[in-house]
Amino acid sequence: MANLLDWNTLDHKVKAYLDPENGVDIAQKAFPILMVSSLLAVSDEEAEDSITDGSKDRGVDAVFVDDRDGRNSIHVFQFKYVDSFENTKKNFPSGEIDKLVSFFDDLLDLNKSLEDTCNPILWNKVKEMWAALDKPKPSIEVHFCGNTLPMQDAEKDRANASLGKFKYFNVHHHSLDSIVEMFVDKKSAIINDQIQVVDKDYFDRTDGSIRGLICTVEAAEVVRIITDPETPTSVQKEIFNDNVRVYLSRTNKINRKIIETALSEDNPLFWYLNNGITITCDSFSYPKGKRAPIVELKNIQIVNGGQTSNALFEASQMAPEKLDDVLILVRIIETKSQPVSLAIAESTNSQTPIKSSDLRSNDDIQKKLEEAFEGMGLFYERKLSQHSDKPKPNRIDALTAGQAHLAYGLELPEVAKKDRGRIFSDLYDQVFTDELLADELLCSLKILNVIETIKKNLQSAIRKQEDFDSNQLFLIDGAYHVLFAIGQICDEREIERLDFEEAVKLVPIAMTYIAELVEETQGKDESFSFNRYFKDAKTKTKVASFIQNKERENV
Description:
This protein is α/β, with parallel strands linked by helices and 555 residues long. The protein is 46% helix and 15% strand. Mean pLDDT is 87; it is low at 350-354.
């Protein structure tokens, strides 16, 4: 059963997601964002846009349609967050089950009355779900998620049975226990193995009760010890229980890079380019003085280098013969003290993860931009939280600025919306050129901030059951296309795009144009959804053409 430490652990993680300026002012609003982003490995922005909670939510608190990497999964959430440890001892409420079943009855029956019984955000998600259900092999994943005890067994059985009557449904129950376990895995499988050192590339030292061995091993040895003996096509996850990070497969760009390096003609450089792995164990032994000794290991845990070892495993599945020349640095630490072992796991992973933006932070272009912004009295953060001691309105985040420039200056709004991670990876040289001016970044970012403020106010009004303009609903998915549209209008009217004072006046006009285009498109497509529409690369061409025709009509 969860204890006070579990409660406190999750409470601190939830509070880190509070953002009063954007309406996330209480833990009950922050918890859903944390859980959607953590369970589905999506960005905080995507998680926040998935929230459907509020008036006429039909028992649905969040919806995320996952079409990444060929997936076709519809995730539907119900949340419950209590604000005291005493209340965590209550069971997850089951009163919303029947509402949820009624919603799914209507959803799968393609009941058009959903438009009247759902709030506008949920209705847009309904259309997105219908589009997903039209595709091959859909699945619907229902999540009951709360920092409490799970539902009572009888109610859990009722939920499973009620939702299990539908095809392709899977029900997941997330309680305080399982949520904390997701962040801090408590399993402790005992794994014993051995690993062979390359030649005499090893160094041994002892300090009291702790002993260490630094050595070089072949990549194939690492792959062998992490391979599941019962299922050779997968890794034994238990060997990573003490690792604070979760492997994200080759879909993660850093892991793709590790795989590419291991399989390239330059793979002998792998030892020099990679930080290696750290293994903790209860004990290790080997015959000293021998070449290529075999090291016996008891109770192994790979506490650092999980991405590296998993990526090598994937590389071996693709082309095992290419790993013959790959060597890797391994640090083995012997300690029977669990607190010491956990401290090693924490300290070897405690550095802030190096993001793509951090890797580029010392480029001359980034330094020059920082100097240029400083001349404007602003603080350009080429590194994460570089100027955290400065007033927030005066700070310019490099990634967010690049995102705005991608939509406004480079006319790629769909990429800015769904693939922001590419800005500091494969699109870096396209976004941050020698010709890029700090003024361009600043202008696009300032206009985006105006649009985002309108969007946040819209979302807040819907959730608070206040009056709102339904013609603005497209903003939830189309903010970057509004920014793109402003650039198009500037060009048509021969307004300098960097003239913020004139360009920002076009925000209402751009919104009106896109609202008209959306309305026109909706009339032709019953299955229309904002999310799908603004992810489509063809949409910007339609927006540009629509604006061109409208502007020329008005001349």
